[in-house]
Amino acid sequence: MPDDAATVPLPTLPAGYRARRLVLADAAAVTAVVAAQDVADTGEVMVEEADVVGDWQRPSFDLATSAVGVETVPDDAASNSGTGSGAGSGAGSATAQQPGVLVAVAEVHRDRAEVAVHPDHRDRGLGTALDHWVLALARARGERSVGSPVLEGSAGDRLLADLGWAVRWHSWVLALPEGVDVPERPLPAGYTARAAAPEEHRACWTLNEDAFLEWSDRPRDGYEDWAALTVERPGFEPWQLRVVVDEAGEVVALALVQMMTTEQGGRERTEAYVARLATRADQRGRGLAQALLVDVFAEGRRRGASLCTLSTDSRTGALGLYEKVGMRVTSSWVNRAAALD
């Protein structure tokens, strides 16, 4: 039985770095590290602070024990201690220390890990040290394996491959090119697409979890965890959760779109990202998902989005569906995992 409260010591790091626990106030700095890694690997920013805060505010995630940051040791702090970061690299809070610059982060939630190292600090052993910490924490919590999504062929992918992490599945980010629309597919008679009402949020959660657990081997997320990533995520607006309801008013399909504005090539770009798309099992084959895609992309463009994106993975079998409606793969990812038996 997994023990989500188990803890392990902070990682031992190379000289010049120290590890510390993260706090909510670190969200912006963590976002900056992940964004720098994104740009180095993909050429674009794929994260915003709301993603980090949403993950951290899940009731099932204990930030104090499930995440770690790596920061540089200021020169004067190292000279005063006379030890660099070697013996002190496992120090807990940096509250009583002169703060350094956050350059790497790692977190573990159940059997999933996220690790990011700023590209200016790669090839210094930080990724390997954080990998060892991830494995130790997941093992202490009773997980059978732990996995992480990495861009295929990236520095992170190569590191995990060298460390023996095997590919569990593939995933892809797809975009609808500017000027291209998803082919219209009218809803069948009796169905309506609209924004979800607050009283429908729990029905959306149930439908979402039922659909995803058909192919995802994980525990069922509680409503509060789901809400933290969706309707309680920073920046959420009611129009972003779209549903299809039948004649009886029951939610039979849903889509969640998240808006993100980043600077790309010296200019701002707003992206509408479909984070959730699901249809109730007994309602499939009627074009509801395609109709919702048309709806959410139109709503996103109405609010300034020039790019419409989503992601899918090989467990769903949906890649061909998205390609048929005009979407194109922009990046390919792998989920690599290490067995902990």
From TrEMBL:
Q: Which InterPro entries match?
A: Acyl_CoA_acyltransferase (IPR016181), Bact_Acetyltransf (IPR050832), GNAT_dom (IPR000182)
Q: Where is this region: Disordered?
A: 73-96
Listed CDD domains: NAT_SF
Provide this UniProt record's keywords sorted from A to Z.
Answer: Acyltransferase, Transferase
Top-level division of the source organism's lineage: Bacteria
MF annotations from Gene Ontology: acyltransferase activity, transferring groups other than amino-acyl groups
The EC number on file is 2.3.1.-
Presence of keyword Acyltransferase: yes
- Top-level EC class as recorded in UniProt: transferase
Q: Which residues form the N-acetyltransferase domain?
A: 40-183, 191-341
Protein's UniProt name: GNAT family N-acetyltransferase
